[in-house]
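Exercise 7.
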Amino acid sequence: MDLASFCFGIFALVVLLPAAVAAGWYWLQKRKGAASEDESPFISLVGLLSEPLPLNKRKLLQAVQKAWDPRIGTSSEDSEDGFVAYHPRTSAVFWQRGFFLVHNMPRTYVEEVEEVTQQIMDLRLRKLFLQHRAWFSVDAVGIPEAISPDEHRRLYHLIARLFLELVDQRCLAIFVPETGQAFPVTEETLAALRAPHPLKALQDSAPIPLLEVAPDDPRMRQAEQQARQTWPQFVEAFEQKRGSDFAVKAPITVEDNTEFIWIEVTALEGDYIYGTLGNDPVDLGQLKYGSRVRVPVAELNDWVYFDPEGNLVGGYTIPLFLDQEKLKRKKPE
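Solution. The predicted structure, written as tokens, is:
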């Protein structure tokens, strides 16, 4: 056996074999879904992409060095602190603080995209899931079953830092396999990944879900009627600046598409409400989060604000949407 073959054999034994075993473990966990209480937690962040990331060995190494440790190299000989074993689809990162995999897949996250999409109740996320054509993820592997809350937070903090170095405009949504939650990519959700506890910060930053409720639902009609009857209460509080985060929900139509969407109120003038969109619509042409709009008071669907003590006032339709969501989410510790 020549020297080159011998070196490759050592490399395969030390690097490729553990990476292959870890990748197999990853796919097993992915098929089984979120980890149960008796299994190691599946600590991973997935980015759903409009197209694959243009990732190569140099870009991945630079991202790892910037996110974690500038002393990480491309082989065990380069650095005693860790190294990156690059592969176009599944790369392994060996580091003193853990073992990680970085996936970059040129295909949808699941095969049955249409079937899975029908199970997504949030219209915004449903649209993003239909649009995605590829995905990438950062996974922490080799995790013991008995992991402390502090270690759990630490690992998510680490993979979130690398995730942020890899994410770009191709990323449509963030998926957390352990909890089954997904979040649209916004300035708020990306900022949440920089927090010491990314999972909790993501939940706190998640926009109000856009859910389908039949317009003739009697509970919706009752909530809407209550909001309109109490509208003078909102007007008085807004004009006297007695509270914060004043918002209304009203229908906005662009071409043939109508969406009931929250609007952050900036002014009340006569029979009209002026403000900016409080979240990204699903399909309202050029309108997006922050776009200025005007809606008639007569079309008001709901209103909400926080009083000086921080209590939520209004929001008559919110309980209805929470009932519709019917999703039990695992809360991070």
